[in-house]
Design a protein that fits this description.
By secondary structure, the chain is mostly helical. The chain has one domain. The chain has 9 helices and 2 strands; from the N terminus they run ααββααααααα. A two-stranded antiparallel ribbon has the order 1-2. α3 packs antiparallel against α5 and α5 crosses α6. The protein is globular and about 75 Å long. The protein starts with 7 loop residues before the first helix and ends in a 7-residue tail after the last helix. This is ABC transporter permease. Keywords: Membrane, Transmembrane, Transmembrane helix. It comes from Siminovitchia sediminis.
């Protein structure tokens, strides 16, 4: 029996450090997914061209990290779901812990993964530009980069990291719900598709457009940050509350 009285913060810190070491494979998979998404982006997001009667033609191709960001968002969502499974939860029993400390350590890990994933996804755009410049037929290139527009660059990176946090919280909530009962494996996708159809046809898609604009088209950075943080906090809090209804380890 130990006479050391450990505080909640000490337990969370140890669990968090353990998860960073134990889940290194998660970040390895992130690198692989981002490399694959770079390959998909080599042909450009879209291109337009024009020609003249003299045989001169000009093609303008648009390259961006959009595909990389989308793939990374899918990665953080899946990671958030997987971290709620029994195989991952039982790792916490190597510590003197409770549900609260386990959830807090998981959330800290997901916030770290969101930060790394979001930053690396945006920075991968530089690698994409380098590859297309040296191995493509690019004659002239321009765009908003760190050196050309640092303010816009860091605002964009902040937005991507916040989206990672939002989808991490949604994935964590979805994973906890699925762990409550296996029926939700089929029920949650059905509900998501049903809501998508409902918002899509309601008032000729007006509700869906308002919801999309509310999350993805906020012009004010401060308001956008508040929205995403509040939505993420609600999702994480709901996940913590629901996890208390889960059975203990057999």
């Amino acid at each position: 029996m130990s006479f050391i009285d450990m505080s909640l913060s000490d337990i969370v810190k140890r669990q968090y450090e353990f998860k960073l070491r134990a889940f290194l494979g998660v970040f390895t998979s992130m690198v692989g997914i981002q490399l694959i998404s770079i390959l998909f982006s080599l042909s450009g997001v879209y291109s337009v061209g024009t020609g003249t009667s003299t045989g001169v033609s000009i093609t303008v191709s648009y390259f961006s990290a959009d595909m990389i960001i989308i793939f990374t968002i899918i990665w953080i969502f899946i990671t958030s779901v997987l971290i709620t499974t029994k195989a991952f939860r039982y790792d916490d029993f190597t510590f003197v812990a409770n549900r609260l400390s386990s959830n807090m350590a998981n959330i800290l890990f997901l916030l770290t993964a969101s930060l790394i994933g979001g930053a690396s996804a945006v920075l991968s755009g530089f690698l994409l530009k380098v590859i297309t410049f040296f191995f493509g037929d690019i004659v002239y290139g321009t765009g908003n980069s760190l050196m050309e527009a640092p303010a816009e660059f860091f605002m964009g990176m902040t937005a991507v990291i916040l989206y990672m946090i939002l989808f991490a919280s949604l994935g964590y909530l979805a994973g906890i719900i699925v762990q409550l009962h296996s029926v939700f494996i089929f029920l949650l996708p059905a509900v998501a598709i049903g809501l998508g159809i409902f918002f899509g046809i309601r008032n000729e898609g007006e509700m869906g457009k308002r919801l999309f604009d509310f999350i993805f088209s906020e012009p004010s950075l401060v308001t956008f940050v508040i929205k995403i943080l509040v939505l993420s906090a609600i999702s994480f809090t709901a996940a913590v509350f629901l996890s208390n209804r889960m059975e203990v380890r057999n």
